[in-house]
């Protein structure tokens, strides 16, 4: 049975849906799942992902006060990461972030322009080192194995090996157990699962609009999706099918960023309450008037203002 969801509303998103006009898979014509404009899954397991967001090299820097480079984490799995560091850092040791991008576990890249721009700003304005992990995407394996893969070496930046020309002095401080894991959407869910394996040894954990799904509808999932939202209910359900929530005491302090008009808002708030009931320290921040992934996919004045608020909140959290 083929499942097809409508195109994600683009509004002011920096997406080019014309790039989604890719040739259909020839070996098998049976499509079992499709998120229009983003990806198509065939019965034989083949997956087509459409390049709707442009990718940029590490040498393209929107922030002049930042340097960037790419490193290989695991050549056998082709997992790599993009590093960011401020050129003129403040005195003392800089806090380190290990970042996991969003994309419903199925799409996304550390090279996506929207993430590159955002993380360069974070490195510059929050004064920190960042390792953005380009992890292996889902769909080639049964969904239940996805998160188990993300708990192992495939997302362990300590295994990194710099590419030729990359400054190893930037690589060395970015060790997962000494850093602060962070991610948005599906990347936040990965961040949560990775952090549970390490526990209170971490300085803290930052989750931005974490992606959790379920069968029972929440109030925020039932509300109308505002124009320009990066996620609608049909796409959220499809991602969740293609790719579960865990709480545990003895975890590091959490900062959870929630978007007011995000359909995931109620699930994110439920997650925060569950974490607190389990004895964890959780600070939840609500960003008013913005939707899912506003910090990377919406260029409106309100979104940019809220993104700057988010960076300031992150800076304060890093320095506690």
Automatic annotation (TrEMBL):
Region of interest (Disordered), ranges: 146-168
Pfam family, one: Abhydrolase_3
Entry-linked InterPro entries: AB_hydrolase_3, AB_hydrolase_fold, Carboxylest/Gibb_receptor
Cleaved signal peptide residues: none
GO molecular function: hydrolase activity
Domain Alpha/beta hydrolase fold-3, chain residue ranges per copy: 97-140, 183-295
Gene3D superfamilies membership: alpha/beta hydrolase
Top-rank taxon, per record: Eukaryota
Record PANTHER family: ARYLACETAMIDE DEACETYLASE (PTHR23024), CARBOXYLESTERASE 17-RELATED (PTHR23024:SF589)
Name of the protein in question: Alpha/beta hydrolase fold-3 domain-containing protein
């Amino acid at each position: 049975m083929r499942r097809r969801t409508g195109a994600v509303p683009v509004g002011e998103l920096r997406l080019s849906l014309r790039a989604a006009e890719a040739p259909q898979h020839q070996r098998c014509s049976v499509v079992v799942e499709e998120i229009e404009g983003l990806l198509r899954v065939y019965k034989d397991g083949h997956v087509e992902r459409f390049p709707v967001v442009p990718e940029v090299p590490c040498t393209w820097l929107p922030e002049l006060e930042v340097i960037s480079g790419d490193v290989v984490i695991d050549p056998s799995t082709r997992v790599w990461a993009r590093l960011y560091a401020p050129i003129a850092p403040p005195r003392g040791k800089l806090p380190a972030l290990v970042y996991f991008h969003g994309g419903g576990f199925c799409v996304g890249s550390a090279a996506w322009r929207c993430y590159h721009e955002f993380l360069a700003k974070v490195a510059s304005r929050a004064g920190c080192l960042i390792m953005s992990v380009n992890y292996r995407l889902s769909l080639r394996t049964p969904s239940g194995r996805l998160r188990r893969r993300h708990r192992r070496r495939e997302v362990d930046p300590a295994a990194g090996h710099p590419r030729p020309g990359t400054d190893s002095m930037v690589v060395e401080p970015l060790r997962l157990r000494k850093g602060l894991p962070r991610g948005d959407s599906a990347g936040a869910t990965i961040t949560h699962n990775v952090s549970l394996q390490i526990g209170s040894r971490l300085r803290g954990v930052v989750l931005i609009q974490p992606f959790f799904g379920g069968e029972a509808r929440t109030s925020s999932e039932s509300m109308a999706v505002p124009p320009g939202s990066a996620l609608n209910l049909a796409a959220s359900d499809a991602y969740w099918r293609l790719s579960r929530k865990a709480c545990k005491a003895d975890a590091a302090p959490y900062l959870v960023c929630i978007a007011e008009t995000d359909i995931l808002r109620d699930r994110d708030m439920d997650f925060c309450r569950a974490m607190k009931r389990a004895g964890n320290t959780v600070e939840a921040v609500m960003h008013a008037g913005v939707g899912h992934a506003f910090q990377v996919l919406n260029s409106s004045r309100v979104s940019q203002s809220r993104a700057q608020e988010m960076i300031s909140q992150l800076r304060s959290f890093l320095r506690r």
